[in-house]
Specification:
Elements lengths: L9 H5 L9 E3 L7 E2 L12 E3 H12 L5 E7 L4 H18 L5 H9 L9 H4 L2 E8 L15 H4 L12 H16 L3 E2 L6 E3 L3 H7 L15
Parallel strand pairs: 2-4
Antiparallel strand pairs: 1-3, 4-5, 5-7, 6-7
Helix pairs in contact: 2-7, 3-4
Length: 219
């Protein structure tokens, strides 16, 4: 992974944040986007993103060929849920690699679940998504959304070699569209894109992230 900046990299945590105060908005209220319910939570947090992130998703949607749609799976993730995900996955990795030091477990975990203190989803700037037809049929992209590195044999990496030609073409199509929207991809997860968070700032060379940890209005 030497060519990939992981979310466990100290440079991510060292990236400053200049919080701009943008609210979280509900992507389900925008007819141009599809929002899938597989990660739905009781209060609908999963369907929320920062307001400019939603605008940029619409730009990305507009860059897709006719008949194709972005299918948003998860946006904002409350900090407690992020911690639960990270702790559960690190426990699995510790069991699989009992001799690995904590730093190595943290590195391995961050290829799939971000350390909570720098997590893009907690900022409201990240989205997990895939592509579908107008009828909601998902396109093949090589693995399921949220497939682990272990179960996909590394096929979850955006540039993975062990996927078919159709899936590769669909990933490239999504990459082009999301780049139009100004998003950056996390290279270990083809479905994960973000804007305005620490990872985005580091990768793009921005002076600071636009978004720190977000909170739903009234929460």
């Amino acid at each position: 992974m030497t060519d990939i900046i992981l979310l466990s990299d100290r440079r991510v945590a060292a990236t400053p944040v200049a919080e701009n105060g943008e609210p979280l908005v509900d992507a389900r209220r925008t007819a141009a986007l599809r929002v899938d319910a597989r990660k739905a939570d009781d209060d609908g947090s999963y369907a929320h993103v920062r307001s400019d992130v939603l605008r940029r998703l619409l730009l990305a949607q507009g860059a897709l060929p006719g008949g194709l749609r972005l299918l948003v799976v998860e946006g904002f993730r409350p900090p407690a849920l992020q911690r639960d995900y990270f702790d559960a996955y690190t426990a699995t990795l510790r069991a699989a690699h009992p001799d690995a030091p904590p730093s190595r477990i943290r590195e391995l975990a961050s290829a799939y679940i971000s350390p909570p203190e720098v997590a893009p989803h907690v900022s409201g700037g990240a989205v997990d998504l895939t592509l579908c037809t107008e009828d909601g049929e998902e396109l093949p992209l090589g693995t399921d959304v949220n497939a682990t590195p272990e179960e996909s044999e590394g096929g979850c990496r955006t540039a993975a070699a062990n996927i078919g030609a159709e899936a590769r073409a669909n990933r490239e199509l999504m990459c082009r569209a999301m780049t139009v929207g100004g998003f950056v991809n996390y290279p270990t997860e083809w479905w994960h894109w973000s804007y305005g968070d620490r990872y985005w700032a580091l990768v793009t060379g921005a002076d600071a992230a636009k978004y720190g940890p977000a909170a739903r209005s009234g929460s």
